[in-house]
Amino acid sequence: MSRTAFRAALCTPIDDPATAGRDAIVYHPDGLLLVEDGHIAACGAFRDLAPSLADPVSMQHYPGALIVPGFVDAHVHFPQVDIMASHGAGLLDWLDRYTFPCEARFADPAHARTTAAFFLDEMMRHGTTSALVFATVHAASVEALFEAALARNMRLIGGKVLMDRNAPDALLEDAQTGAAATDRLIRAWRGRGRLGYAVTPRFAPSCGDTLLAAAGRLLAAHDDVLLHTHLSETADEVALVDQLFPAADGYVDVYDRAGLLTRRSVLAHAIHLSSGDRARLAETGASLAHCPSSNLFLGSGLYDLAAADAAGLTTALGTDVGAGTSLSLLATLGDAYKVARLRGQGLDPLRGLYLATLGGARALGIDHRIGSLQPGKEADFVVLDPAATPLLARRRATCRGVEDVLFMLATLGDDRCVAETRLMGAKAWRRGRRNGSGG
Ligand code: GUN
Ligand code: ZN
User: Fold this and answer.
1) pTM of the predicted protein model
2) At 347, is the pLDDT very low, low, confident or very high (cuts 50, 70, 90)?
3) Residue 230 CA, ligand 1 centroid: distance in Å
4) Quick one: which atom of ligand 1 is closest to the CA of 80?
5) Is the Cβ atom of 99 under 6 angstroms away from ligand 1?
6) From the CB of 100, is ligand 1 less than 6 Å away?
7) Could you tell me if the CB of 203 is within 6 A of ligand 1?
8) Does the C-beta of 230 come closer than 6 Å to ligand 1?
9) Residue 15 CA to ligand 2 centre (angstroms)
10) Ligand 1 atom with the shortest distance to the CA of 233
11) What does the H/E/C string look like for the chain?
12) Measured from the CA of 294, which atom of ligand 1 is nearest?
């Protein structure tokens, strides 16, 4: 059996602070995380756990660092890393000008493989250990992503995009072809390593009723797969959906009628919603992926976290790269706070940590395996360096508690603060040593 102990400050959610209060977050200023065969065996105060450690155990000590669960990105497009920061005029224009040409290049499997490897290496560098990922319409793009994730032993869920209209011909296929390819991919990949599959219709404007219904049938036929799509991101998109689906009672109903709203459904954005929409979404158990960086970049709108909470909805956090401007969940949390403020709301740092970790795991249905530093879970975690730059080091010295540190990391931090990323206890990435800081 392999055993390694990690000593540092430890902070982990064990529940949602919005419902469970302050006790939902566990913090040990001098903590010890014991990992046995890739799983967490113990997490607690160093002084309590150290005496019971049987010799010999390898001990990694990170003075000044903060260990948190690996970040979970609940909505991201791996092929779009090359179009981040592309100047445009809102979602629909941005899709036509940048996204569709970028995704057409994934007809080349070699391009898919190099991009998938780059993307996952960047995830490791940003401390993101799990994600729900859009590929492109090409089966080879999903195969490239899964092969790269399998090689890194990542817990990752992805899917082939389904679309049959309103995009260049090279990216379209009829409903039957798309559904058959999806079914083949599910059977070939589910359960391999730590991989999962998500049926991935792009969004209602790209999918006719027949294709949406086929996606619904796939979701019903495979009870271990997710449904991943976009919902109500911009006002123009909502107007287009009303026009394209005159028989439906709005955007949520378009998905509802196709059987796409379930406990296994993750809907990105979900900004332009009525209270009736939220109530129906909550009834179905669907989760929402809040993507604040993307929403600010495209000018899509402001996610209403308080309304989602009040409706009893599960919210997770997504970078939505390439419309998102960073792969860092820390930077994304900083944007989530600003969006909350523009809504006249708050987002406290402990809730933020929950959203970026256990909240994402819950939305993806993998919280029994990852998302917190609790015994029995897979040991996916990040060693954060709160003093990664001279400015952070100076500001860190004035922080009074872990809440201050977490808020500072969300507001000023990003990949520079990720000293080490571990997957099932094994080192997946380590930053080069910096002067005067841990890691
Ligand atoms: N809606 C449909 N496709 C996309 C996409 O690729 N990015 C974003 N942000 N929204 C979408
Ligand atoms: Zn997206």
Assistant:
1) 0.98
2) very high
3) 7
4) 6
5) yes
6) no
7) yes
8) yes
9) 27
10) 10
11) CCEEEEEEEEEEECCCHHHHCHHHEEEEEEEEEEEECCEEEEEEEHHHHHHHCCCCCEEEEEEEEEEEECEEEEEEEHHHHHHCCCCCCCHHHHHHHHHHHHHHHHHCHHHHHHHHHHHHHHHHHCCEEEEEEECCCCHHHHHHHHHHHHHHCCEEEEECEECCCCCCHHHCCCHHHHHHHHHHHHHHHCCCCCEEEEEEECCHHHCCHHHHHHHHHHHHHCCCCEEEEEECCCHHHHHHHHHHCCCCCCHHHHHHHCCCCCCCEEEEECCCCCHHHHHHHHHHCCEEEECHHHHHHHCCCCCCHHHHHHCCCEEEECCCCCCCCCCCHHHHHHHHHHHHHHCCCCCCHHHHHHHHCHHHHHHCCCCCCCCCCCCCCECCEEEECCCCCHHHHHHHCCCCCHHHHHHHHHHHCCHHHEEEEEECCEEEEECCCCCCCCC
12) 9
Ligand whose nearest atom lies closest to the CA of 96: 1
Q: The domain 71-327 is classified under which CATH number: 3.30.110.70, 3.20.20.140, 3.40.190.10, 3.30.70.100?
A: 3.20.20.140
pLDDT band at 439 (very low <50, low <70, confident <90, very high): very low
Report whether residue 202 contacts ligand 1, using a CB cutoff of 6 Å.
yes
Pocket flag, ligand 1, residue 320 (CB < 6 Å): yes
The CA-atom distances, in angstroms, between 242 and each of 65, 232, 239, 337 are: 50, 11, 5, 31
The token pair that represents 71 in the structure block = 């970040």
Model confidence band, residue 436 (pLDDT cutoffs 50, 70, 90) = very low
Provide ipTM, 2 decimals: 0.99
Ligand nearest to the CA of 95: 1
Where in the chain are the domains?
3-69+373-430, 71-327
Q: Which CATH superfamily is domain 3-69+373-430 in?
A: Urease, subunit C, domain 1 (2.30.40.10)
- Our answer on whether the CB atom of 237 is closer than 6 Å to any ligand 1 atom is no
